[in-house]
Amino acid sequence: MAGFRQIDGELCFGIYNANKKFNRFYQHVLASYGLTYPQYAVMLVLWNHAPITVRELGAYVDLDSGTLTPLLKRLQKNGWVTKSRSTKDERVVNINITDYAKKMEKEIYAHVNQCFEILGMSRSQIDEALKVINAVSNQLDNVDVQKITEVD
Fold this sequence. Notes:
With 152 residues, the protein is mainly alpha-helical. It has seven helices and three strands; from the N terminus they run H-H-E-H-H-E-E-H-H-H. The chain has a three-stranded antiparallel beta sheet with strand order 1-3-2. A hairpin with a 7-residue loop joins strand 2 and strand 3. The model has no long low-confidence stretch (mean pLDDT 90).
């Protein structure tokens, strides 16, 4: 029908489709380490910022505690992280990485980088794609939701 947009011309579908494919890509990349992509994203933050509170971690990865808590329990069960209550405020849970996680960091980074070489994208292509994706994400962060609901 004339006037209707095709799905392959929609930015949202392109991002959605790429996200699904990246999830499958990372599923294969991380399988030998027993990590899911969300767990890997959490580990990326922890490798750079641990020890950190659950709240701070959630802000980095944009996950609420209801999603983050079971993910952290699995990471703890599998020997990647430790959890402890703050001595100052028992409501605050601190997350730290284990010696095993510290030991695995370089190996996992090397493996992920090798897989990106297999993907066939240069560092400059990855950087350019990331710049565009971050611009879209930042624009979405700044959308006035009130204006969306007022559209006729």
